[in-house]
Design goal:
By secondary structure, this protein is an alpha+beta fold. About 50% of the residues lie in helices and about 20% in strands. The chain has helices at about 5-35, 40-70, 70-110, 145-150, 170-180, 230-280, 290-320, 335-350, 370-385, 445-455, 480-485; strands at about 125-130, 135-140, 185-190, 205-215, 220-230, 330, 355-360, 365-370, 395-400, 405-410, 460-465, 470-475, 505, 510-515.
Amino acid sequence: MNPSRISGVVVLRKMSDAWTMAMDAALTHVLSSEAGARVADAAELRILRRLTAGFLAGLLLLPAGLSALIGAAAGLPIGVSLAVSLYLITAVALVAGTRFGARLASRAADPQADNSVDPWDYCPGLFLTLDTTGVVRGSGGRDRDMFLSFLREPLSRPFVEQVHVSDRIAFARALDDLRLGADVVVIDVRLDRPVLGLDQTQFLNVRLDMTAMRNAAGELVAVRAQMLDIEGEMKMRDAVRVKEHEAHAAHELKSRFLAAVSHEMRTPLNAILGFSDILAGEYFGKLENDRQREYVQLIRQSGAHLLSVVNTMLDMSKIEAGRYELMMESFDAAETLIECERMLSLQATAKGVKLSSRLPRGLGEITADSRALRQIVINLIGNAIKFTDAGGAVTLDAARRGSDFVVSISDTGVGIAPEKIALLGRPFTQIQDDLNRNHEGSGLGLSLVKGLTALHGGTFMIESRKGEGTVVTITLPADGSGVLNADEDNMVEFPPRLSQTVSTDKESGKAARHDQAEAKIA
């Protein structure tokens, strides 16, 4: 064979191979883009390659034939458009037919592949399809076999027959809500067990999450219900209910114990105070020396302090148990505050603390429990004097702000650190809690103040700076409306929670605490 002819054949073959590779690459790109991540099939490439070769021939012959018949001006564009359209339609038809044939072949090879999988089978629980009357038309779900093992043949029967008699009204109401337009209804019902196991109860507690299925007109056509076993949740509810009952019983027992002990201790304390007063007055004979007089005075002071603690405990237990009754009356506020100042003036003078008041004219009358107001003011002034060193000052202020009556007690005492503010007001809690504390007390004063303020529907606020002093502000409704709007039995959360967290001014080191002290049923 002629060498030049051989070389020409080789060149043509290489050109053909290059054209084939380029065409396959282009067709592969088109098929992959159209089918997402699906890899182009070799049969599809082979069919499209042959179609493209025929298209190139038709692209030349069809426009040429039309040009000869109707002229080049109209024949060329019409011929090209017609050839391209025929190519695209034929390509789509051939590829679709190839894929459809491959799918049929795979189903013929694997008969089970034709069975569609319900997506609800991967979801927990039992899925039921109900018609508008509540009859079960289908079932599915991951736990279908477990639920159907004790249900009494639910298919084609009203589901309400499976529900316990006491819960059938709730199920019927939920189904009616879906008919009336609700999209989702969730109810808890009990199902009867026809056969009981050794560790099974008569009823199974389940939760039905019912979703409405509607047509284009919005009419209910079916209900899809997911059933979940909530036996564990019900056991937790029962355990919580038992613990809550036990805690309430213990709380009540503790309150009764405090009230009983406080009441029983006051009788001997009154005797101690009475006899110590007789000894100190030397009504039945002179004491021999000053040491005896000092001891009698110490007995009197200790007994008075213990009686004060007992009375505070009794009042606190009454508030905590909801049995503290407020005796509401209208009285002159300034007169009551001045009386409290006079009661504690001797204590302040003995410690070297200046106690003063700044009461504006026209303070007027307020409606409150006068005894409770005295307890609030006396406790606050007593605390201020206790934590103020000699040479310091304690000031009592009061004002009317709209419909509120505001009392403020400020001191120049030791102050309170910002991190200690959160501990204030807790029963039997004191800020200075080390062994060498300098101030006596039971830690009940502020708890009682907060409780009495809560019963009046008032607010309680503390502002303090370490080493500079403290300001305590009590705000009460002047007309007594806080008590009138409170709960009927005057139950309060004791000790009342402070509604805001401790806020500290980093520049001044000032800490403030505000307490809404809202009354609530315990």
